[in-house]
Amino acid sequence: MLKEDRAGRKAEITEAVRPFGIRDKIGYMFGDFGNDFSFIFASNYLMVFYTKVLGLSGYVVGLLFLGARFVDAFTDVTMGRIVDNLQPARDGRFRAWIRRMSIPVAVASSLMYLYFVRDWAYPAKLAYVIFTYLLWGSFCYTAINIPYGSMASVISPDVKERAALSTFRSIGASLAGFVIGVLVPLIIYETDAEGNQIVKPVHFTVTALAFGILALVCYFLCYTLCRERVAFEKKQGMKQSAGELLKGLAGNRPLLALVCGALILLLATMLTQAMNNYLFLDYFKNAKALAVANVVGIGGALLIAPFITRIVSAFGKKEAGAAGMLGAGIVYLLLFVLRVKSLPLFLGLLFLGSLGTGLFNMIIWAFITDIIDYQEIVTGRREDGTVYAVYSFARKVGQALAGGLGGFVLTAVGYVSEAASQAEGVAERIYTVSTLLPGLCYLAVFLILQFAYPLTRREVEKNAEILRRKRAEEGTDVRSEERNDAEI
Questions:
Q1: Average pLDDT along the chain
Q2: Whose CA is closest to 474, among 157, 228, 226?
Q3: d(CA 120, CA 362)
Q4: Radius of gyration (Cα) for the chain, nearest Å?
Q5: 3-state secondary structure at position 197
Q6: Which of 1, 7, 173, 261 is most buried as measured by Cβ atoms within 10 A of its Cβ?
Q7: Pairing state of beta strands 10-12 and 2-4?
Q8: Per-residue pLDDT reduced to its tens digit, 90-107
Q9: Could you give the C-alpha distances from 92 to 16, 235, 370, 463, in angstroms and in order?
């Protein structure tokens, strides 16, 4: 709603808010915890469900993942414009969408894993897969993830507090990854009498339903614990055309650099997660070790989490993220060169690589809030939802390319979905893809951050101070509203 101060200025006020604190950090953590019960589960195991349970070819699954991103090109940006331009609800501009969409996204996610669809005719299976995947990813997930991600920029205007939100968000994702990575391989896989790893279809469906319920609990905690604090006025009579919007975004160098980096990063990360299922089943022939690998991969991120604030304060987000990507790239290229057969050695090197990727992933969401501030300074417009939507779309493209490439690669290396065991040489080729491609991608992200992304620590602090003064002058900084509540 709008309130008017003595000078006649109108500012958007949401609701009376308490100071920023640990409740906001924990609440924001639970938001991504809830998101990733569907996102990470789909990223890691949806292709397995489609190929091993429903019997679809990797090529068909790859086409589905890529085709869905054309739909996302419209739905993501549209959702960003919706949250930017609609009048906020009493519980906030972005927070309200968590309340509205938590149940739909949980239901849509669960619907993707119905095991009995395997008995349907092929055209019916294909229609089911297309409908449920688009319903979840392009509509329901988009409608909750974009407002959730955008909300970080209005929870606090402080650079260090935003970095803390990014860290806690990444902790939430890591915890979801831990739960999914440890439990799912133990639940959905079993070893037959001949020593082959097979999937238990019914357990897929039950697991998806359980994750949907857990996601609802997490969304409720996020909604309850977080508050929006940074308010800004939507000026009347200043509608922005699509051309003007694209021109403004095209001139945002930090956004373009991060979009490119995020696309490559997600391509590497999601492809690695998807291929690990086949790497441990067919190369190491130990599906249960996949749970250990997931713990090791997440362990690096959680181990480095307590030190993120100090690292960012000492070096800056850009500088720390670039160093992490360089280290991860070197480790994965080393794995490729060594052609490791020893499972303990592989897991040890994987842990070292996770320190680098974990460092970058812990702070990546704070990059977005910095870019939103930069966009406002350059264009004079506050476009939280739209900027985040563009970045979210890039992440989905990376995810789709990973899923699509994963499907194409499985076909190219000779993997047969219905076969109990694979032909000779297939496992070695899976190992090559799982190590060489991530190594090259992580080095590419390092180069982008180092040479193309311009927001150094000094630039971020300068932009934050410019906007703080602007909010104080306009009377739209929530901290000023709290101090002068009696005057409004």
A1: 84
A2: 157
A3: 43
A4: 23
A5: strand
A6: 261
A7: antiparallel
A8: 888 999 999 999 999 999
A9: 11, 18, 21, 24
Residues 6+ apart with CB under 8 A from 410: 51, 58, 278, 417
pLDDT in tens, 189-230: 887 666 666 888 999 999 999 999 999 999 999 999 999 988
For residue 135, give the DSSP letter: I
Tokens 């992933």 sit on residue: 361
**pTM higher than 0.85, yes or no?**
no
DSSP 51-73: IIIS---HHHHHHHHHHHHHHHH
Mean pLDDT value across residues 326-334: 96
Give the CA diameter of the chain: 81
Strand partners, 370: none
Cβ proximity of 433 and 409 under 8 Å: yes
How many CA atoms are closer than 13 Å to the CA of 235, on its beta-carbon side?
9
Q: Which residues pair with 198 in a beta bridge?
A: 190
Q: Over range 290-307, report the average pLDDT.
A: 83
Q: Using alpha carbons only, what angle is made at residue 240 by residues 235 and 243, rounded to the nearest 5 degrees?
A: 165
Q: How many CB atoms lie within 10 A of CB 134?
A: 18
Whole-number Cα distances in Å, 254 to 199, 258, 321, 327, 352 = 44, 6, 14, 22, 29
Q: In the prediction, which pLDDT does 8 show?
A: 39
Residues in the chain, total: 488
| Residue showing tokens 């959702």 | 79
Q: Are 64 and 204 in contact (CB under 8 A)?
A: no
CB atoms within 10 A of CB 227: 24
Strands (E), 2-93: 2-4, 10-12
Measured between its terminal Cα atoms, the distance across the chain in Å is 13
Burial of 121 (0-12, 13-18, 19+ CB in 10 A): exposed
CA 226 to chain centre: 19
Q: How far is CA 439 from the centre of its chain?
A: 20
